[in-house]
Amino acid sequence: MTKLLDTTPAADGLRMPAEFEAHDGCWLLWPERPDNWRLGARPAQAAFAAVATAIATSEPVTVGVSARQYVNARSMLPDAIRVVEMSSNDAWMRDVGPTFVVGKNGERRAVDWVFNAWGGLNGGLYFPWDQDDLVARKVAEIEGADRYRPPMILEGGAIHVDGAGTLITTEECLTDPNRNPHMDKGQLEILLHEYLGVTNVIWLGKGVVDDETNGHIDNLCAFVKPGEVVLTWTDNKRDPQYKVSQDAYERLMEARDANDRRLKVHKLIQPGPLERTVAEAEGLDASDGGVMRPAGQRLAASYVNFYVGNSVVVMPLLDPKRDREAAAQLQKLFPERRLIGVKSREILLGGGNIHCITQQVPSARGTAPVATARRKSRR
Ligand code: KQY
């Protein structure tokens, strides 16, 4: 039996490790709803299966799937991937799954943020979201992890950490009036400190243009190691993304991390800009109160939305004109991991990408960064 704890990770001496530290596994959910995934979700299911298969070369993968889709998911996923029956309202494990925190004595516990579908009844993307809000608790229980339930609405895609005390996020998302309207930045920082063990929060401004999550950081900027971040970038001054990335760049160059270091900022070319086609819009079922997805809509495409596994980086392939250059840039940033590209336009059409559909389970034993540990042993 796992417990609901009434302390906080910081009080208990736990911290959120960086994604590039060692994992014991990774979780995904299975896409199904036909008002978000075109053609009855078949193309998206193939893309999710490709992502899960790529990650499974690096660490154990579990996919949560509804009773209705169990047989289909089981048949589309390799045997090595564990499939468990789990209800959800959609398939964004990064946002509805637990954020795991670890301690020095082998503790691993789950932070079960309150979820309101990216903005609740006034700004959210669908209703209901009650099953999504139970996913973190179910994953925690299966993983045998005790659980904290912070008094705060947050999605996992809204934060990135370096594992060494620093967190990056955006003002657009965290101060969105439909998340935690009663809290200012100082109060939010206190909760981030209490529940993730961070001591320094770096605030960027806006997220990627037309990102329906209100600017999730995981589409804009990510740590590649302590002291180094990668930022989605365009040199085209006529693209509205230019100003957003420029502002983020300036803030990052001004920032200091928890160890009082300046950050090294790597600019990563953006795909496109990409738009939803008529055929893609027409392949969706009508939605009862869900978000509109018209043809011609700009897609919030970014190569920063990658997943860092133990021995792989799984990146989105989105634009044949740019994929190769982006892959070369990412491979340089993660020289010790195998880069696997997965065609992920079908995931993008649903409003997110590879990072958004995954959630790592950090190792509770050795939590030293994999890449750093390997580099040291070579000297
Ligand atoms: O950015 C993410 N972490 C998730 C995107 C969710 C979009 C919902 N349609």
In summary, what is this structure?
The chain is α/β, with parallel strands linked by helices and 379 residues long. It contains twelve helices and 19 strands. It is globular.
Please describe what this structure looks like.
This protein is an alpha/beta fold and 379 residues long. Helix content is 27%, strand content 21%. The strands form 6 sheets. The protein has a 4-stranded mixed β-sheet with strand order 1-7-6-5, covered by helices on one side. A 4-stranded mixed β-sheet has the order 4-3-2-19. It has a 3-stranded mixed β-sheet with strand order 8-9-10, sandwiched between helices. A hairpin with a 3-residue loop joins β16 and β17 (312-317). The longest helix is centred in the first third of the chain and has 15 residues, at 42-56. It is globular, with a radius of gyration of 19 Å. 6-aminohexanamide binds at residues 92, 94-95, 125, 157, 212-213, 216, 218-219, 350-352, 356. The site of 6-aminohexanamide has 14 residues, from α3.
Based on helices, strands and strand pairing, what is the structural class?
Answer: alpha/beta
Distance between the termini: 44 Å
Largest sheet: 4 strands, mixed
Helicity, in percent?
25-40%
Low-confidence stretches: 368-379
Mean pLDDT: 95
Name every ligand kind in the structure.
Answer: 6-aminohexanamide
Separate helix tally = 12
Percent of residues in beta strands: 15-25%
**Count of individual beta strands:** 19
What would you report as the Rg, rounded to the nearest angstrom? Answer: 19 Å
Question: What is the overall shape?
Answer: globular
Strand order of the largest sheet: 1-7-6-5
